[in-house]
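Checklist before submission:
- one chain only
- standard amino acids only
- sequence pasted in full

Submission:
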Amino acid sequence: MSKKLWLLVLVLLVPWPAHAESIGFAVSPPVVELVGNPGEQVSSSVQVTNLTDQTLTLDVDRRGFVAKGDEGQVDLVDTDSVYNLVPWFSIQNPSLELPARSTRSFEFNIQLPAN
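Returned file contents:
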């Protein structure tokens, strides 16, 4: 029996240095739909594009989230809830050096629990 796993890709990409007026990047696609069986590992990727004229260093973190409001907002949370999917994720390269005006693939794995 396969389980359909919906993932909202909420990777935290934290540019360094953090000057908001000079930072710009895009992540595509923003939502990834994956299907897997219990105990299986599923892999996917997103494209990260540097929209600026400078090199960006992006550090990636895994965080849980909960719904906030009725318009699609989320709150990032640190929780050990039974619904927390963070332990299922592994990140290939948690730090990504992105040259100006370039696009790179960011890969991640999801290990589905056997039960």
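Reviewer check: The radius of gyration is 15 Å.
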